[in-house]
Amino acid sequence: MDARNPILATAPAAAYPPRANRVRPGRRVADKILIAGSTLATIIGIVVLGSILLMLIVEGIKGFSPMIFTQPTPGPGSEGGGIANAILGSLVLTVIGIVIATPVGVMAGTYLAEYGRNSRLADLIRFLNDILLSAPSILIGLFVYTLMVRPMGTYSGWAGGVALAIIATPVIVRTTEDMLRLVPSQMREAGVALGAPPSHVIKSVTWRAASAGIVTGILLALARIAGETAPLLFTALNNNSWFNANLLGGIPNLPVMIYQFALSPYQNWQSLAWAGALLITVTILALSIVARLVIKDTRAR
Amino acid sequence: MTALTQSLALARETASVRKGPSKGLDRAFQAASLGSALLVLLVLAGILGSIIYGGWPAFREFGFGFITSSAWNIGTEQYGALVAVIGTLASAFLALLIGVPISLGIAIYLTQLCPGWARKPVSMTIELLASVPSIIYGMWGLFIFAPLFARFVQTPVSNVFEGLPIVGSLLYARVPSGVGILTAGIILAIMIVPFVASITRDMLDQIPTVLRESAYGIGCTTWEVVRHVLVPQASVSIIGAVMLGLGRALGETMAVTFVIGNANRLSASIFDPGSTIASRIANEFNEADGMQLNALMALGCLLFVITFIVLIIARLLTRRAKLA
């Protein structure tokens, strides 16, 4: 595991203490610089994450009050208010996104792992899916704007949900495929040998064997879309009151609310933005940690 | 008689047992999975199609001059992409310049130096950085980092280099506000580090331990093992990981919008505010109309082309590494 140990272990025990004589100074200096540099890089990473979390906790708790869960966002210049409408709107958008993305993503991943395998079409789709996975999310916003907002003539929660679904789908496709590929082919063969048709084998053998992994993929996709802002700017927009039940018109949502309120001159808007930021980050970090634990559980088994 | 009934009963039983699930359902399932997979294709084609469709009037109106012009005047309807394209490329380049050494350092620390008990928590911390939403990075950059940066970096550096040729104009802040291209580059660097570091770590972990052990066995230092054994083995995939990070940095919207200053000005200084393609679209799209909308779509088109070339190269590089 740690291949560096032998050198360290022998150095103090060696009979000749002037180690500098055995190793050319240039080599030692390069080694020291590497060790110092990479340790420093790791410390920077940890300090930055710590600083972000500290900022969120300090500023977020200042803006936290029970009111934020009961009152809608306040208008410009008015006092008090909460972010209840934005929380609900975000939940609705995320649920629409994940409800669309899950069946499409799982089925597409199933195609890649079970039917397409190494065919040319499957290779192409896998490649494009990987590209879609890291495509700029603002372009997805532009696409959904042209596809839904302009024909419908209004911003809507549906458009926002579809934009989020497009972001979530590649994540689910990728993890589903990876997880299905880990299922040993003997299990499939056993199912087929019993006379079950391929669809039945997939549904009751491979999916079941890979279920924890697929759930992880869905959780990761949830974590990814819960904080997405750019695609919602042109699709769901935002709104300072409660939204219609038919989801037409601007739908208040946490990310866009944070964006608008954080840059606003009003004191109460800013503190609401911080409270929202704390809420959303804690949710997302919790989702990613849970997703990791699910993976670890299946691996342990 | 009994034989007959028995054979009848047997026949009935086998008939009921052999009634398998219908072929139609099986076909439908396969068709549904193929359809879902094709939907992914369709979405990507749709993104490209819709952006070209939206940006076409601007390309027709301004021609090639759209890319070389730095005008962005809503009153006179003159639009050019140069400032935004340069801002995008410059901030992404700065992000790589800062982010790649840090990512490699973290990957090397995690695979070579980290004591066993700390590996899990440290790599978890780095990976969690990847799941923090970009808007949070934007807030951190604007409210925490920018004031510190203005006070401890921009002002002293401007004072030192003021009046000198080249560095004087490159590192001079007219208004040390803390926001600008360099700040955007630093925030982007922080955002790409977790991706590049975790992919690089995975690649380094895949290298057979025997190689490392034999290098240490002949008395190599850690630096020599990294330089002459690990890096040559993983170089292609590391470049792929860096390209993936670049793709992310080019298309990042929210964090950049917070810290870049959103100015349509071509400036030689990396301390000055500028704008990127993504930040300009985010800022103006909702109020845009007519030709401005088309110009923004055309900007999106350019972003699409730039990022997709980078991402395709990245995927090809990481893929080839997997095969080898």
From TrEMBL, chain A:
Per the UniProt record, which residue ranges are transmembrane?
A: 33-58, 83-106, 127-149, 155-173, 272-295
Q: Which residues form the ABC transmembrane type-1 domain?
A: 87-291
**Cellular compartment(s):** Cell inner membrane; Cell membrane
The reply on keyword Ribonucleoprotein is no
Q: Which PROSITE patterns match?
A: ABC_TM1
Matching entries from Pfam families are given as:
BPD_transp_1
Is the keyword Protein transport in the record?
Answer: no
Instruction: Using the UniProt record, give the first listed, main subcellular location.
Output: membrane
Protein name (database record): Phosphate transport system permease protein PstA
Source organism: Methylobacterium thuringiense
The organism's lineage?
Answer: Bacteria, Pseudomonadati, Pseudomonadota, Alphaproteobacteria, Hyphomicrobiales
Name the gene for this chain: pstA
UniProtKB/TrEMBL annotation, chain B:
Its membrane topology? Multi-pass membrane protein
List the InterPro entries.
MetI-like, MetI-like_sf, Phosphate_PstC, Phosphate_Transport_Permease
Location(s), subcellular: Cell inner membrane; Cell membrane
Q: Does this entry carry the keyword Hydrolase?
A: no
User: What is known about what this protein does?
Assistant: Part of the binding-protein-dependent transport system for phosphate; probably responsible for the translocation of the substrate across the membrane.
| NCBIfam families in UniProt | phosphate_pstC
Question: Gene for this protein?
Answer: pstC
Keyword set includes Transmembrane: yes
Q: Which residues form the ABC transmembrane type-1 domain?
A: 85-314
Q: What is this protein called?
A: Phosphate transport system permease protein
Q: SUPFAM superfamilies recorded for this chain?
A: MetI-like
Keywords from UniProt, A to Z, are: Cell inner membrane, Cell membrane, Membrane, Phosphate transport, Transmembrane, Transmembrane helix, Transport
- Matching Pfam families, A to Z? BPD_transp_1 (PF00528)
Q: Into which family does the record put it?
A: Belongs to the binding-protein-dependent transport system permease family. CysTW subfamily.
Q: What is its main location?
A: membrane
Q: Where are the transmembrane segments?
A: 37-59, 79-107, 128-150, 170-197, 236-260, 295-317
Output the superkingdom of the source species.
Bacteria
Please list the coiled coil stretches: none
